[in-house]
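Reopening this ticket.

The earlier resolution said the output was attached, but the attachment link was broken on my side. Pasting everything inline this time so it's all in one place.
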Amino acid sequence: MLKAKNAVLGFSLVQSEEIIDRALAEDLSGGDVTTEALIPNSQRGTGFIVVKEKGILAGLDVAKRVFHRVDPELEISAFLEDGSKVEPGSIIARVEGKVASILKAERVALNFLQRLSGVASETNRYVEAVKGLPVRIMDTRKTTPGLRLLEKYAVRVGGGENHRMNLGDGILIKDNHLVALHSRGLSLKEIIAKARQNVPKRLKIEVEVKTMPEALEAAEAGVDIIMLDNMSLEDIREAVKSIHGRALVEASGGITRDKVRAIAEARVDFISVGALTHSVKALDISLKLTI
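Inline output:
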């Protein structure tokens, strides 16, 4: 099982409550007319949450929280933990109590489980692809609006690391920053100096570059991290050699699983992958009710 303790990952269920409440309001703002019309409030049953495909589990505590927000009297027994490797047929948890409550919470709970397990599973595939190499797989800010906290948690469950959580977490000078500043006559060296002058010393300064000359200029300007954006494998290799330890190197843009190991073998320090969150496939998970 992957290391996935909430305290270690900096994940707080308290922080997730607003997200859960919004999701429940989205689904239950008009009530559950089907369940309320057909299922007596006194009927009790048991639901088993079952995985239908191979992957990494993430979001179980969030799903449990959903069930308890709908009905605090539901009894939930978890058989696995976040970070567990699951196979088709794996039973994640058992939910017991009022059938009506289980049905009202089912979709929202499963949506969180499927989405977060999908993120953790895809992250783990990238991590496994570079296994044995001294590189870190990282996410980006290309997250689902409103779900960043949870999706970045899932990345860490899958064995990856978080890039910036938000725009206040670090200096990342991207292409559009450079366009705006170059138009005012500033060189990259002057831009870096301006950043160091105006931000806390604890923050690392990273700059995005697209060409070898830009990478060399950034290294000479004294940045902490150089992001090689959408550069060819050949150029990445050459850039790492030319930078020669003067800054940490991050590869980003168009990273896919079939090319990630070759990029890691070029000895970059980080590989950031937007696909971990922006287009991931949900893991197939369902709830089976028994009476």
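Reporter confirms the inline version is readable. The domain at 129-278 is CATH 3.20.20.70 (TIM Barrel). Residues 69 and 291 are 22 Å apart (CA to CA).
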